[in-house]
Give the backbone structure.
Amino acid sequence: MNKMTVFIGLLLVVIACKKASEILPELPELFKGFVQPANFPAPVYNVTKNPISKEQFELGKKLFYDARLSRNNTISCGSCHIPAAGFTHHGHDVSHGINDQLGTRNSMPIMNVAWNKAFFWDGGVADLDLLAIVPIENPVEMDERVPNILKKLEGDEQYHSMFEKAYGTSEITSVRFLKALSSFMLMATSSNAKYDKVMRKEGARFTQEEEQGYALFRSKCAHCHPEPLFTDGTFRSNGLIPSAVNDLGRYDITLNPLEKYKFKVPSLRNLKYTAPFMHDGRFLNLDGVLNHYSGEVIDNGTLDPLLKNSNGKLGIQFTVNERKLLLSFLETLNDESFIQNKLLAE
Amino acid sequence: MLYPKGDVEWGKCNRDISGLSIASHFGQDDKFCHLGNLSDSQKYKQMKTIKHILLIGVTILVLVACKKNEIPAPDNKNIGELSIEFDNIVGNKTLQLNTANYLNASGETFSLSLIQYYVSNLKFTNTQGAEYVVPQDSSYFLILGDDRNSRFAKVNVPEGDYKSVTFTLGVDSIRSTMPVEQRQGVLDPTGGHDGAGMYWGWNSGYIFFKMEGTSPSVTSADNKFRYHIGLYGGYDPTTPTLNNIKTVTLDLSKGGVAEVRKGYRSNIHLLVDLMKAFNGPTNISIAEHPTVMVSDFGSVVANNYQHMFSHDHTENGVRNENEL
């Protein structure tokens, strides 16, 4: 009898154990390395030469959300590049950095950076690995220096172990620091909007409105915002009235008068999450943007020729219905899975 | 046949004589550079006075011999050390940060608090006209006005008699766009170069030449002026930026050819007259241009400062940096 009890007891334990492992399956591995979406071109960043390991990504992620990257340990990269806002600073025309100082430009999304030819609104940086230096050193953003950051990290055992896992030794160097941040940013791929699923024929279909909006988009917008990244990466003046800041954009980098007021063409992906719009965040919503293109464009001397019509009118003309159709197409570029991506979230 | 085998150097004879007594040299003639060819020495064994004459004669011989520069022919399979010394001066005064006052051609008094510049891509031409280009990876130097040790651009080159030197003032465009792994040491864009701050992160470019100071002619509260000159043409050839990279070539034949030999160091001593940043093709007024950074005027400054280098002399046969 006793033996029987023990036996049944053991059996139960075994079953229970088995059950437990069935009930609690292993968490799915979120990190799958850098994946090139089937409907995307080859990345600009050389991911073959710099393959991203899980450990480098994890290190980069920790750094991205670490406020010690700022002088007084208050501002992290993630402060102004919030995943839920498509890695922008939702609701802020310009971001406030250290000591609540304001910048002059709208926080850009960290999205599909592997396909970027140049970074920032003025394209001052062409190499992703050198990007992080800019906000770190900017006195109104993080106001810090990389060597100082490395000193702070030196005192943290966890970082030593993460650097070791990522790069083989626990040495904390500027190159590793920058590359780790790149590893994180490179994984921020947004390629699962409805548009992508339609293009990849994954079962999704455009509604009639979306289809018509797509056709309109292709005729009126795609020259500067070509698929599938919805930017050609060039610098153009879209006829904004200069603000009091009088931001000269690309001119500040090249000193070429022909490039005054030119800014990088932004992607049209994830607009639902990334308002406000334009380099200085002056338009609070897409209606504001469309109002600009249809009636507020001025010739500031460097206006893009594509915004000059043969009838002398500036900008892009839309009927009320066309605006509606266009907006419904732009809706299909919102990628909820990117916003919700647990891999990238803090 | 006369090349020293001991610890005496061929290029340093003059200095040795001034530092040591003739008698002590006489006592160790096997070690001294040009005494081996004395003849008839047995004749004056008992003649004290002649001994004195000999002593004088030897002295002359030594001096003459040393002047004659009897060093072995260069063997370009051997490698020797060569350095360019960037000795900063301001007009006819030495550089004394913060304390000295200088006067430029615009009649403005100024002092300097900081001077830093990049020197890169060293190239030497020997007396036969053959050129030696220093491998690029070891050809970047940051000269810091407040760090005397940084004033030497030190490289290894094949033995030879070099009559001219060419270098870049700044950082070439190819290196400026290389991956960050290939831009370490003084080129570390994160400011690893002891916080010298020689990189503009926001436009991805090195500051080639950085000069700061004060002048009563500057009307701001702190009287400061800041000249940060860079720009290499930009990463995008379709929209080039200014290119302020300057190449400097100096003829060494007048001030002394660099005789590079294995086991020794030659040092090409340049004077760098920082005054020429202000005085030159364009005389610059500090009051009118207290801050010059990323602007068209940077080219005017660069066109001036490219003329600040002159060859003063060359020290050959150096064995220890302390001798310089």
